[in-house]
Amino acid sequence: MSEQFAAALAAEEAAIYAYGLLGVKLTARAEVTAARAAELEHRERRDWLINKIAELGSSSGPTPAGYTLPFPVIDRDSALDLAIKIEDGVAQAWRPVLGVTADDDRTTALAALTDAAVRAVRWRRLNAVTPLTMAFPGRAG
Amino acid sequence: MVLTDAVRMSEVGQSRRRLLGAGLALTSLGGCGLFSHDPDPPTPVDALQPVLDEALALAIAYDRAILSLPAVADRLSPLAADHRAHAAELVTLIGRTSPTSAAASGPALTTPSAGASADEVIAGFRTAEQSALKTAVAACKATTAVRAGSVGSIAACRATHVEALR
Predict the structure, then answer these.
(1) Minimal Cα–Cα distance from B80 to chain A, Å?
(2) What part of B 29-88 touches A (C-beta under 8 Å)?
(3) What are the tens digits of pLDDT across the range B20-79?
């Protein structure tokens, strides 16, 4: 279980880093507000995971100082592309948590997966990426 | 040949009277139901069957709407495709083909009435997706660890459909 939680935590930490970076490339007020809200939500998920990992008696490990971006974020379009990629990655990290949790913890994992998938749709719409949806959010490949 | 030899009653230790008696006994047992051909008890419905029924019903409803309103085809076709992918996944998970009719047991979708605008049709689908989302979320919470990932992804996808239909 701690392995799945640790992977989800790593994805949330990467998302927090990415939103800090891509947010400055967004100029429209609605987009900036959405990015800030997303970052806050990822911080809440991160804190939840840290507590869960601590409950399991495991260590969450140090947060990386930086990340290698999959592509340069130089403007609004690339910032939105990164946001899409980040949310898809977060959804992929949460899906395995469903199989190792039950009750309230599974509810939280499902909410995290769903919220990431919905945010990815919003970023796709803003960047005119189609199709907006995918059949199995969180499934790799 | 052995197969064409007559079998005499005395060799198998049976008399005509005993055989007739046995036949009578079987008839009596049949009458009391022991050997009757009662249908097998119905197979329990899989917990994911309602999720499958909704996926099929929504796919069909989207296809019909696309036919009647080609202007929304680009918007609705990917959603229909998602539901068909879900149906295929759920049939695999359940392990058999669906015995129920999607049209009979799926969500109560409002079939686009003649003259309905694209906005009205999309609003109807949004409501249907919200209902289907609740079913999938409940199924994900209740299902086994092995199925949780797939059902969770289906629930998340239905949530994205609600968003895509805004």
Answers:
(1) 10
(2) 74, 78-79, 81-82, 85-86
(3) 444 444 444 444 455 566 777 887 899 999 999 999 999 999 999 999 999 999 999 999
Positive or negative, the Cα torsion across B35, B37, B42, B43? Answer: positive
Q: Does domain B49-164 fall into CATH 3.20.20.370?
A: no
Q: Do B159 and A114 touch (CB under 8 A)?
A: yes
CATH architecture of A2-126: Up-down Bundle (1.20)
Cα A71-A72-A76 angle, rounded to 5 deg: 110
Contact between residue A106 and residue A98 where contact means Cβ atoms under 8 Å apart = yes
Note the ipTM here: 0.96
Question: What does the block give as tokens for B96?
Answer: 């058999």
Query: Which residues of chain B lie closer than 8 angstroms to A107, CB-CB?
Result: 141
Determine the Cα–Cα distance for residues B58 and B77; give it in Å rounded to an integer. 11
